[in-house]
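From the pipeline queue, job 12 of 40. The input is one protein chain; the requested action is below.

Action: predict structure.
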Amino acid sequence: MTDILDPADCTTMAQVRAGVDQVDRNLIALLARRFGYMDAAARIKPDRALVRDEARKAEVIANARASAAAAGIPEAAVAELWERLVEASIAYEFEAFDRR
């Protein structure tokens, strides 16, 4: 098995791909945890109308954009990803709320 290298230390595409694959596995694990929090929110919120919170959505996306800027990665791309992530999370939370 190939050791996972820091991006700056990669010298072959196999190393780059191994790193990307590891990051993807880590992201999936983090997304599973994030969706777990959506389950918790659906359990805690007393009313289905509280699932969608546009102010909180804007805050989450703004936080992601600021974190992207601090990390030196494309803010607009991160904001777009987070828009989709938050909308998927809201849809999931509605489903979780309806299941309970």
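Job complete. The chain is about 75% helix and 0% strand.
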